[in-house]
Write a structure and sequence with these properties.
Largest sheet: 6 strands, antiparallel
Helix content: 25-40%
Radius of gyration: 50 Å
Shape: elongated
Strand content: 25-35%
Amino acid sequence: MTTSSSGYEAVGLGDARRSAGYAAVVLDGRGLVTGWSAEAERLLGYRAHDVLGLSIDALTERAEGQRPGAWLTRWPGSGRRHEVAFRHVSGRPLRVAVTGRRSVDTAEGPALLLLLTDAEDFAAGQMPQAMLQGITTQSPVAMTIYGPDLRVAWANAAARQELPGPFAQYVGRREDELYPGSQVLSAHHPATVTQLMGTVLDTGQTVVGLHYRGRPPSDPDHEHVWSLSYYRLQDDEGRSLGVCEESVDVTDLHLAQRRLALLNEASVLIGSTLDLDRTVGELAEVLVPQVTDFVAVDLLADVLDGREPDARSAGRHGDMRRAVHVSVREDLPEAVVTPGEPVAYPEGTPQWHCLAVGLPVLNAVLDPSSPWLLRDAERSSRMRTLGIHSHLVVPLRARGITMGVATLMRWRTPEPFAEDDMLLVEELAARAAVCIDNARRYTREHQSALTLQRSLLPHELHAHTAVEAAYRYLPADTEAGVGGDWFDVLPLACARVGLVVGDVIGHGIHAAATMGRLRTAVHTLADIDLPPDEMLAHLDDLVQRLAQEADAAHPTGVQGVVGATCLYGIYDPVTRRATFARAGHPPPALAHPEKAVEFPDIPVGPPLGVGGMPFESAEVDVPDGCVLALYTDGLFTASDGDADTGLERISFALAHPDRPLEEICDIIEQALLPEHPPDDVAFLVARPRPIAAENVATLSLPFEPASVGRARKLTGARLAQWRLDELSFSAELIVSELVTNAVRHAQPPISLRLIRTESKLICAVSDHSSTSPHLRRARLGDEGGRGLFLVAQFGLRWGTRSTENGKVIWAELPIPRPDTGPPAP
């Protein structure tokens, strides 16, 4: 039996044993080991003298029922590779990749050379080779290697597609020689790629995702954009071998990003105002020069004049005017008409077709011999002179109606309009058309909004006995002119006055409409003289009902009522006290003549519409000379949004309550409000007018019929003291009936109060019964039931209001002026 070395030489395979990473085993014709290399010993662990002469089957894991040597028959020829399970000397199985090569017959018979390697190591070694093969021939990423001199040394198949002809002609050339006039699209890198590669070669710093624009040799007529990456190549000892460039053509992605950026820019720029001319101009600014060299926008006369266009308007092609045109040249060589002039497009022109069907018309390559051009000599001449080669017309449509057309032309830009350009311009035109239609409709909507505003807010604050008042109302929506804030001064019974300020969340017509309904509700509830906390409870119920109605009518919530805040107070000039309640609203401010401005601690309830929580009221003393200020939160948050700073500024503005109220309002507006407040602002400044004690008479009456006479006697005496003898008969009759009604139908105690103001005499009787009287017509046989009827006949007004302990029935008599006689009974 031969030794391992002599076995190799005997079969002429001396070079095979030196194959890197392979273990060589020689078998004779019977499958016995005749050669065993050192690599085989390292792989399987067996020494040569242990295995020589053994059957190779003795070293393998044989499947049950498999005949000996069956796996050797897999190599009818040479070079085939199979995986065989060998048994290591340690007893563990080992997967081995085996390649069999038959040698020539020897003196001892035919021989077979087996080249063995660990299957896992073999598979790992194959992967880099497959990867290199794929990068070289199959990868879509273009890869070019530049030598230390930064000249082309090698390129894979993808890179060679951009280099037509034999690749040898490009070897040794620099990048700027292959792509002359190219540009790096980044301000943070050198101006040329060659300079950039020099930096990479010197520093070893990797560059990833650099965008680069140029014209490749394979397509010199069109610009391309690539995403480039660079890294240094070096040997095992760290010596620089060159720079590798990886590039991907991202032209389509770059154009898509530019279009997206243009759309984003347009969404900000177009429609920034409600001025129609400005909106059309913004569309033209977006298109030139980013998309086109020239654009002209022509609109129907109905649109320019603010009228409502319809489907028939687009059919009147001659009823159009030039709205705007813009060119890359200031002298506008493409323009045939000037803005504002009529423009006519005959039948058959792209503009005529666009208006007729509402679809864009693209002439990517303009034919100067087109019939529609030949019929328009002036336009045709200018197009030929400038070399206009591409033409695009898109409709301006909104709400299904074509309002005009935009005409785009290219003559300086070499690329013609493409489908992607048309889609982009259609999107821009659609956005602009909506803005143009909004601008057209603005005037009509503005007038409607102003009318609504005038009908909802007080036209002026009438003089009241109890207070002198002034106000300011500044809606944030200055264009519409309306908002959700409101205020009011309401005359109440017994010379009292109601002060209210409210704020509906939101702006515009919907907030104003809700505000109008709340203001109407406040007037209605004030007529029945509800206390402030009960007033807010009823308003809370109303807002909840309004929200439910809005939700039912508009399930999406677009028109829904979100909520409101409100501050309501009643000032009594007799007691010099005010009772306030608030629903999520800032407290009032009370400016004193001799001390700092006070913000009374009024219990705060939830905003109107929340429901489920009670409201509380609190009384505030209002000394003589003070000023009350009621306001919405837009006042103290307008400047910087800080509530504490806003309250400090309110205190400063109210520091001198002795000033005229209009002057105080001006100071508040100047000190607290910017030029354009971000929120609606309403504030009400009121100077209370207390009634002097000598103009009030109060008498507690026993709960007995005799009190009627005492009340009549007191009334006559006090009227004589006030020199109102002409009112004695009417006043005594009213007092008699009110006291009689209280004694008969109410509960003790009862009292009478007479109040004299500049224009009225007020007679009020209070008791501790909650039952309110009702006016009725007595029948002929009835002994009673005529009291309130007489009160209503002799008095100017009468009514009843609830108190904490009962009610007050009151009646008013007008005090005649000196030049008038007594009132007729």
